[in-house]
Specification:
This protein is an all-alpha fold. It is about 50% helix and about 0% strand. It folds into two domains: about 5-105, Helix Hairpins, CATH 1.10.287; about 180-260, 434 Repressor (Amino-terminal Domain), CATH 1.10.260.40.
Length: about 260
């Protein structure tokens, strides 16, 4: 499973590569609502720096995909990257996709290592070093103006009141599954559309959560926020629900990965 920084702009906004302008705008507004300053989906899950990174990538994704010229250049870059990845797989003789290793954490590199020092083209060239004319021309060229785009009006934050939600009465300590979340919601007389209205999470994602359809959920960085928002909305312990639900999601992914490798 890819992490946030590895998602393409289409994956980040949860739209298909052939999505039209209206669909991209709706997806952008939904992402704003999900990761806004007062959003339940991000409450206590991410630090300020993480949220700033998420919001910046959402803004950049919308800027690029809403401008035809920018989007065309981005699509060509995606196509080249995918072709290169396929060539690398063929050369290595791998019979499984490289993204099987997306969840592995590489060892941190020492910033003081000689291999990580910035390259200085003047090193060892003496006092008479002069950059070639091509470099001079490139550095002197004025930057291209950034394309303008119309940004949709930001949605007003929702401030729901959870003080009237009763605690869970039939808590036997068992892990929270989608079915158990659904029972808790129905016991409180809360409609799924009400949860969607409060949390700004689409109904289809809430239905996938309740049905334990992990494959239909977005990347974990989104899924965890959606589950947390759902739990808080119906008065459950969001930390506990997220811990149980995401553990089940990871177990299912690991089993599926093992099955594909054995096949």
């Amino acid at each position: 499973m890819k992490n946030l920084t590895e998602l393409s702009y289409y994956e980040l906004l949860e739209v298909s590569p052939d999505a039209g302008n209206r669909e991209i705008e709706r997806a952008y507004q939904m992402a704003q609502a999900t990761y806004g300053e007062s959003s339940l989906a991000t409450y206590s899950l991410y630090g300020d720096e993480e949220l700033a990174t998420i919001r910046a990538r959402i803004e950049e994704a919308y800027r690029v995909l809403s401008e035809p010229a920018e989007r065309s250049r981005y699509d060509r870059g995606l196509a080249r990257a995918e072709a290169l990845a396929e060539e690398e797989v063929d050369e290595l003789g791998l019979d499984f996709p490289l993204d099987e290793f997306d969840d592995l954490d590489p060892r941190p590199l020492d910033a003081g290592s000689p291999d990580l020092r910035p390259f200085d083209p003047r090193a060892g060239a003496g006092d008479d070093f002069r950059p070639r004319s091509g470099i001079e021309t490139e550095s002197a060229a004025s930057p291209s103006p950034r394309p303008s785009f119309r940004r949709p009006e930001r949605l007003a934050p929702v401030q729901p009141d959870f003080s009237k939600v009763a605690p869970l009465e039939d808590d036997d300590g068992s892990p929270f599954t989608g079915a158990r979340l659904r029972r808790a919601r129905l016991a409180r007389g809360i409609e799924l559309e009400q949860v969607a209205s409060v949390t700004k999470v689409m109904v289809r994602h809430l239905e996938s959560i309740e049905a334990d359809r992990y494959a239909d959920l977005p990347a974990p960085v989104y899924a965890r926020g959606f589950v947390s928002a759902y739990a808080r909305c119906i008065g459950l312990d969001a930390d506990r629900v997220c811990r149980d639900y995401m553990a089940a999601l990871r177990d299912t992914e690991n089993r599926d990965t093992g099955s594909r490798r054995r096949a």
